Hints:
By secondary structure, the chain is of the alpha/beta class. The chain folds into 2 domains: 123 residues, Enolase-like, N-terminal domain (Enolase-like, domain 1, 2-Layer Sandwich), CATH 3.30.390; 218 residues, TIM Barrel (Alpha-Beta Barrel). It contains 13 helices and 13 strands. The chain has a 10-stranded mixed beta sheet with strand order 5-6-7-8-9-10-11-4-13-12. It has a 3-stranded antiparallel beta sheet with strand order 1-2-3, sandwiched between helices. The chain is globular and about 60 Å long.
Amino acid sequence: MRINGFKTRVVSVPRERGPLGEGVDSLASNFVTLRLTTDEGVEGIGYGGFVSSLMVKALKSAMDALAEQTIGEDPMNNEAISAKLFALGGSGAPAGLVTRSISAIDVAVWDIKGKALGQPVYKLLGGHRDRVKTYYSGKLWRPYSLDELRESGIELVEQGFKSMKFRMGAEDTAAKELARAQALREAVGPDIDLMVDINQGWDVNTSITIGRELASYGLFWLEDPVHHQDYQGLARIADALDTPIAAGEYHYGIAPFRHMLEHRSIDIVMVDLLRAGGITGWMKVAHMAEAYNMPVVSHLAPEFLVHGIAAIPNGMTVELMPWAYPMFKEPPRVEDGMMVLPDKPGFGIEFDEDALDKMAVE
């Protein structure tokens, strides 16, 4: 079996008010969809995205150029394909649009492998479980008022979610920051797991000072409190607080995770599919984390990363960020706070062509 063609297209998916507040990209997510075909009629899908509208055409160009280089390759050889594309894309330097493009291609390759072998991807990767914990991450943004936080939190509980993530890091006083945690905790009660994401909005001292006050609200984790490359600063925060520190979503490739693990910068390893290098790179980080006795959580792309979390013994939970869901016919379903793995071959999902036509940019 050989790869014999591909097709990409740019789509803009509407979404609710999100983390960017106002602005051209605040109410839409931009993606480049990918279909990778083989001479035996097996097709794999993937996507690149979570870039600004300014960069999405450049992402498509990069993806087209790299996908062209997979023609004639055996899709069973995902490592060889990945290595070839990284070498062609920048002498192996894993960053930016090159890695985002390779990640999308790698996902499509794994989808082909699963379909060709008649197995779900999570079973090919290890098959540790067939359902995993999930938390909702598509609401509770910084622009939300305290009342909106309360109302949205209660709504998610009523929908059956047992875990959810909210955002802090934009207020001008510590008291205002803490008021957000208090409002949401009082609204959802003591039995709901609450994660908080700072998105690199604080410095080390602020993280420790406010982090100690946050302990009374029983947070499940504190995410990305400072700049992602401040390994030693993160380690200081992790050492000072009882609340677990989660980070990793901003890192490209696998090498930065070695530095974080060696510095004991974090307690929970968060890995982004599109920055890690697809499923192939993501799994390498997951196994590295296992060697350090650390749990792994996903970032974005739950329709694909539920397979990664389900495949590994140290998989903790899947981030349910539904921004890409409108592109698919049947995204993974959630039952009693658990995301259920599809039993279909590959990733078990398919694009909704009618929806893509309506959202197409080109």
